[in-house]
Design brief:
269 residues; alpha/beta; 5 helices
């Protein structure tokens, strides 16, 4: 049975896999909208359409699915609660982001959230998502003896403020191999390497954010991976950010292969 809160919706599955997609939310509460640049209310840096792209796959495989309601412009669910930078030396977005992915300010002058507001958002929006995520992983471990977490993301292929040049189409991150069993990194890397339609990399610019690094605890039976996918693989990267069914139909079989290969992994006896 699905579990819905004001912050997120969890659809429990029947296999030891949870698909998390922390950046698909688009809501900004009415009492906060006055703070933002008008452009921000369009939430252009959303991981658009991932619930649609992965939803049928999750259902057919029996995977759990965790979907937030609120925009990353309100709070970034894939950042640590202490707001430590995920990629030192590179441009980073914060727990409560203050810039668009293009580098311009998100907020009107003097309207960025102060420490008290950041704490309030963390308690109201960040904590419920992570409570749901942690509880579902514990349920899966209780039923299956281990849990697999697939953290799904997408991004525009070119964003000079965040990275140089064009990003590979498919970016698999396992925190340099620390967030999952070594065989999982190898197996999923093989799935990506066997195809030629999409460029791919393992543990490149995107190695996995807070969710992958925090919940990936192989020594405790929790194995986490992140896939950062260029949006041009399944949608239009420019406004109106439309879903492209023809493109999606090409990439979905590969996503299915990745998820099936992940589910085929078993812990050593």
């Amino acid at each position: 049975m699905s579990s819905t809160s004001t912050a997120c919706e969890l659809k429990p599955g029947r296999v030891p896999l949870l698909i998390s997609m922390p950046h698909v939310g688009t809501a900004i509460p009415a009492d906060q909208q006055h703070r933002y640049q008008p452009r921000a209310l369009e939430t252009e840096d959303t991981d658009w359409h991932l619930a649609r792209l992965y939803g049928e796959l999750a259902e057919s495989l029996g995977a759990s699915l965790l979907v937030p309601h609120y925009s990353r412009y309100l709070i970034d669910l894939n950042r640590p609660p202490d707001d430590a930078p995920m990629y030192p030396g590179a441009s980073n977005t914060e727990l409560c982001p203050t810039r668009f992915f293009t580098g311009e300010p998100l907020y009107l002058e003097g309207q960025a959230p102060d420490a008290a507001e950041r704490l309030r958002r963390r308690e109201l929006y960040w904590q419920p998502y992570h409570q749901a995520l942690s509880s579902e992983l514990q349920r899966l471990k209780g039923e299956h003896g281990y849990a697999l977490l697939f953290d799904a993301h997408s991004i525009r292929s070119e964003l000079p403020w965040l990275f140089e040049g064009r990003l590979p189409d498919l970016n698999l991150g396992t925190a340099d191999g620390k967030s999952c069993d070594a065989a999982i990194t190898r197996d999923l890397g093989e799935v990506l390497a066997r195809q030629s339609r999409y460029s791919e990399v393992v543990n490149g610019r995107f190695k996995g954010g807070y969710i992958t690094r925090h919940y990936g605890r192989p020594d405790q039976g929790q194995h986490a991976v992140q896939l950062e996918m260029c949006q041009c693989c399944y949608m239009q990267e420019a406004r109106p950010f439309a879903y492209d069914q023809a493109l999606a139909e090409h990439v979905q079989p590969l996503l299915q292969s990745l998820l099936e290969r992940l589910l085929a992994w078993r812990p050593a006896a």
